Amino acid sequence: MRIGLLTAGGDCPGLNAVIRGVVARARQHGADVVGILEGWDGLMEGRFRPLDRDAVRGILQRGGTILGTSRRDPYVHGDGAASVRGAIEGERLDGLIVVGGDGTLRSSLALWEEGIPLVGVPKTIDNDIPGTDVTFGFDTAVQIATEAIDRITTTAESHDRVMVVEVMGRTCGWIASYAGIAAGADAILVPENPYDLSELAELLKTRAAGGRRYSVVVVAEGIAPPPGAQIVAPLDAFGFERLGGVSAVVAAELERLTGFEARVTVLGYVQRGGTPSAADRVLGSRLGVAAADLAVAGAFGRMVALRGTEILDVPLDVVRAEPRAVPPAILDVAGTLSAP
Ligand code: F6P
What's 139-272's CATH class? Predict the structure, then answer.
């Protein structure tokens, strides 16, 4: 049996653990793995690389993906299944394992419905994919964001400043909530909750009156801009707005409302790069092994998932659901701990 493996969409820490897990398990089953380069682009253009056990040695600690990735898509940049079928047949692939985020997995579902045999593996630092409790990459991103906020807190304190720190997460506030709680942020703004900058300004003034003349505000990139503000965002290949920059507006408005000096840090891609945490390496490895099992068994149209402590598989059409928002219980903790 020959399995094609690709990583598509934004990269995240733990992708190489998945690749290594797939190859190790496929080998146990006597199956060959063919790496597809740069995501769907490589499949549409027939760019492959054999993946034997030696090809995946020493990659567990590495960030990114040894296969490369792209934000190109068979439905946006090609003719759907027709644009990948030739390469699959030419390379004699019996099935694909596709590691991707919501955009990639939705395209995978459409391809599966057009008869392409594939298994999905959810990945993203945003932790928002429906059907799985956690996505690998999230743990590393939270760790990096927490360390950054810790550092920003000491300079905030030295200068009596309001520090606004913007983290990734698209339409969900997972990274903001977790890193904000972990670093003891003074306010956490997430897309799941409406916010009021006048109220926040009062909170910062109360802190200052109580002797804490600095504050750290964590902002998820996907919050709605403050009323009256407009942020022009270009669209990516899947038609999603490219986010980033709302924190500048928030900081300017807080400065105006409080009279305190405010500064902005946009953490950006540092949250996605570099070595994965141990938790992400383990989760990626487990998902890779499970995906290989499914592909070898011919159980296509499924997505591997973490539910509680178990790895299981769910129908791929679970990705039709809305992104998985941060639950109220976590938002409640974040709100309680950041109260003045
Ligand atoms: O989905 C992962 C993510 O890192 C988001 O948090 C962010 O908004 C987006 O990707 C950035 O995408 P790109 O790599 O296309 O700039």
Answer: alpha beta
The 10s digit of each residue's pLDDT in 130-180 is 999 999 999 999 999 999 999 999 999 999 999 999 999 999 999 999 999
C-alpha of residue 158 to centroid of ligand 1, in Å: 32
Q: Would you state the structure tokens that stand for residue 62, as one six-digit string?
A: 């590495």
Buried b (16+ CB within 10 A) or exposed e, 77-101: ebebbebbbebbeeeebbbbbbbbb
CATH code of 2-137+276-320, in short, is 3.40.50.450
The pTM assigned to this predicted structure is: 0.96
Q: Is 73 a catalytic residue?
A: no
Span from the CA of 10 to the centroid of ligand 1 (angstroms)? 6
Same topology, domains 2-137+276-320 and 139-272? Answer is: yes
DSSP 316: G
Whose Cα sits closest to atom 15 in ligand 1? 10
Which strands make up the sheet holding 95-100, listed edge to edge? Answer: 48-51, 32-36, 2-7, 95-100, 118-122, 302-307, 310-315
